[in-house]
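ok so I'm stuck.
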Amino acid sequence: MPSATMPETWEQPERFIRLPEVYRRVGLGKSMIYEMIQKGRFPKPYKLTPFTSCWSEREIVAWIADVKDGFEGKKRKV
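replied:
not stuck anymore, here's the structure
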């Protein structure tokens, strides 16, 4: 019979998030997000339909972690 508890190595499943949630998480507006995407400094969205773009939550979380560690290799002193 399977155990009722989750294994310790279990991770959250991949999740897509829409642009308004990306705004809230990163604190940037639409224009800045798309400008940074063009410069290769922000994760690109995935096109789910011709009218729907979403971002990988994991990629956004990783981008935030990179920024917190210091963008372009400049470590922040805490």
